[in-house]
User: Fold this.
Amino acid sequence: MSSAIRNYALVTGAYWGFTLTDGALRMLVLLHFHALGYSAFEIALLFILYEFAGIVTNLVGGWLAQARGLRFTLFAGLILQIGSLSALSLTNPDWLPAISVAYVMGLQAASGVAKDLTKMSSKSAIKVLVPADAEGALFRWVALLTGSKNALKGIGFFMGGALLSWLGFSGALLAMAAGLALTLIAVAVSLGNAMSGPASKAKPKFHEVFSRDRKINILSAARLFLFGSRDIWFVVGLPVFLASELGWGHVEVGTYMAAWVIGYGFIQAIAPKMLRAGSREPDGRTAQFWLVALIAVTTAIAAAITQDISPQLAVLGGLSVFGIVFAVNSSLHSYLILAYADGDKVAMNVGFYYMSNAIGRLSGTILSGITYLYGGLVGCLVTSIAFLTISWIISAALPSRETATPQS
Assistant:
């Protein structure tokens, strides 16, 4: 088990290094192009392909990892991110806006591919490295990886702003590319041939990426609406509300969003302790219970705003509670997909699941702008409640411990 823990630590370290650059890159692009005078719509376009890339990458990446091994897809993600950061450093402020947007959109798409290859490889590696009968350890390790990732992404927001101030746009990107290159070299040398072979001796067919396991399909559908519900009001509605309704500046908005993501990641990491996973592992009924809690919190925030009960207290206080409950929901889902996944097809199962996650995020991102335009933050919250209700209905079909035991 010591070698498994060592390999897990190496994979996690690589994922942490990538996550820092991922969070920093988003902040760098947003702040840099805002300073150049690009409109909010033009800046939003820069991230659309990033989100869309996740849908395709998670689907194809799982199949690729199954055929070539998790080591291949992990390193491919890191190399692609290094290339994307280096190429982005060549962006010229004298270019026509249309050319700049197209160039950055393409490289953001490449970065999105890199992110999902790395994430899928890291999370699938846990299932490979943890013994089949250690479900409690599986939940704790999944929660640690997921929580630390989000906390580091928040730190990456700060890092992006700091590097932009110290080194400028191109200098910051090259510094991150160099740091990630060193991480890649260190992990490649230390990991050796671990996880280098295909996950199964049987060569996977591409059509097999579409899961035939009912549990995984149900969980993936529930995940789609869960993450869509968050991004419907978090991506556009919340930042615009803080700036336009509460009068916050860009620094205040960015700092608060980063702090929220860090806190959210911390809760994800300790979710097993909150749920007392050692005595009874989560199941479909657990997922339903926490979805009900999330619906209640979101409804309370919407009601408070509608009744004009201190919007600042309602939104900021409500968002803190929302973050705690949503983090538990997210950790539960991340555990269940690995508990349900077939040991021989774990990468494809995880890839299919995170494809649904990406569809939810893309849908939420698009709906966030539309619902805020026509209904304000309350409109975003009402739409979010509808998504959560659909996720709860779908989750009713997940097995409970009394009716079925998830595959390990």
Summary: DSSP finds twelve helices and no strands in the chain. The CA atoms of residues 275 and 388 lie 21 Å apart.
